[in-house]
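Notes from hallway chat w/ T.B., transcribed later so I don't forget. T.B. wanted the structure written out for a chain they're using in a teaching module, and asked if we could keep both sequence and structure tokens in one place. Agreed to drop them here.
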Amino acid sequence: MEKGGLSLPQVNANINAANHAGALSVKLPANFTKTVNYTGNSGSGSLAMNGATDFSVSAAFTSSAVAFPRGWPVCRNGSSTYSFTDGSGTAKINIDLTNCAFALANNP
């Protein structure tokens, strides 16, 4: 996606999203078991986990503003990578950002 806006609500399928200068919102179902590969460049986005309890997140970012849910490990100032696993990590979520604003939320 380039310079557009897209919302993917409650998709329980493998997702490969590339966002360039756009706004992309992905809302996963609570029982999500698939894989998300999200690449962002000079845009904004969000990923709502909706109380999912079995996932593994790995993220790489450069010059980005990234917000993580309360209760997740803190991302250290100046870090360019982040990882967090909940449950057995069945669902895989990979995020790669450059010059982006991005928020992860885990509200049930």
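Follow-up for T.B.: The chain is about 0% helix and 55% strand. Might be a good example for the class.
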